[in-house]
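Hey, can you fold this one?
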Amino acid sequence: MQFVHINGIVIHYDIRRAEGDRPVVVFINSLGTDSRIWHHVAPKLAEDYTILTYDKRGHGLSGLGNPPYSIDDHAADLAGLLDHLELSGVVVCGLSVGGLIAQGLYASRPDLVKGLVLSNTAHKIGTAEMWAARIATVEEKGIGNILDAIMERWFTAPFRRPENAAYQAYCNMLVRQPVLGYSGTCAAIRDADFTEVAKRIAVPALCVVGREDGSTPPDVVKSLADLIPGARFEIIDGAAHIPCVETPAAHAALIRGFIEQLNEE
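Sure. Predicted structure:
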């Protein structure tokens, strides 16, 4: 585990450097999770690429800061981390709100980004009313109050079996995130609209979604891909909102194929 002060808060990160001049892949976790969601994807890529994972503010082992946040806050944290590590020209893979952060990073620091893998995300996610209701609920009653509803969006029915220890662990991950970090990031999602940014993305982009995603369904992710010039769109069978957990081999294969195509261009 590695830690650094960025923008006045502690950011927890982990970097595994590949030998030689290899592409760098940066993974951004979703709302209510931490960097451990990439635990099964990162090793499938680590021999060939430098891998950077981190906990965004208000999640995991990173600091809380001063919620509520904006996507600009999250993007500035990532830009600061990349500057600290002297990395640029990276492939950014963001899941859900991580995809919004990836778009925000591109908008503010395009020099840092070589390619975008936008997984289970959109240019705008949900409505202001929806996010306001969720913020009120978790701040009044706790994250556990929305656990079952969120899990139905995150994972397919076969994964949500009570005897599946991994499913129980991801339930634990969600409810153990700081309430203010969670609600603060809900506010960031509420206020984010990257419709115009997406139209101006000038690096290669891959938009990926689980076929059974209940948070950002395939048609929503396809609408993002349609905005980005030349973007690819792929659906992963047997997965919902977090394919890096349910179908890590398929998720990693798409990322690898995208990076190798980048190297050929």
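The chain is about 40% helix and 20% strand. Let me know if you want another pass with a different chain boundary.
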